[in-house]
């Protein structure tokens, strides 16, 4: 039932020099490379904040490269950001309705993240959600436009979840919770997979949820912590985690898995789409390092030590399987015992 992908992850003759050539100037390029040793050392410590090793000029240069790379591949990054910024009044109205003032943010969530000094708690990060998401799979599939690559990437996971659910049920799920839903893109995919299902999304960023509600008003979005949602026991038929666990410390990931088990009805399905550590380790060294700079928990002792099969079995899950979704990510599926 695995999802197939086309070609191989594209080889780069010299990833480091390619990145250097696209940076804003030699000063930023030199600094980025000079700081690499410091960041490498920092990545080995639980409290490291590798993005903060880099100065403003290097950060701006790296971001400019990423944005231009997306634009060169057909993602209208700047246009999409301007379009979202023009809806700021609506976004702030959503924020006022969604924001849960009682939420206490974990320390790991308030650090720099994804190249943003403010992490996920900023309008800047929220405005860039759509183009950043569309850019995710650039390079996954040889010679494929980003629109087709998105469908291959998202659609493959969607169909696999549909098939896994159908193997144990004769009708669509009644309820589905998308934990760590970000801008609602994965929640939208689940609505497409199960048109009659009540789909809800939860995220810790009220900024991201405001964008989600603006884009997908038919879906319920909740401001909450996936480690402890406050939702009733056994209230969902399906729980999905899309690119959430690699963004968490190992202890927090385990809490999320326990919470997912608590929320699922007997026979319910858990689906986890995320980075495959083996595939990440196979990336060219500079590209892998550049990824880890903005993903502080993608390292040994944290996400790389999370083995879903052994983690899920004592939580009451069975029928576990893990398949390649694309050249970089895997999809894990399991069913809560009756």
UniProtKB/TrEMBL annotation:
InterPro entries reported for this sequence: Methyltransf_11, Methyltransf_Superfamily, SAM-dependent_MTases_sf
Domain annotation Methyltransferase type: ranges: 177-271
Pfam family, one: Methyltransf_11
Molecular function (Gene Ontology), one example: S-adenosylmethionine-dependent methyltransferase activity
Lineage: superkingdom: Eukaryota
Entries under Gene3D superfamilies matching the protein: Vaccinia Virus protein VP39 (3.40.50.150)
Protein name: Methyltransferase type 11 domain-containing protein
Organism encoding this protein: Effrenium voratum
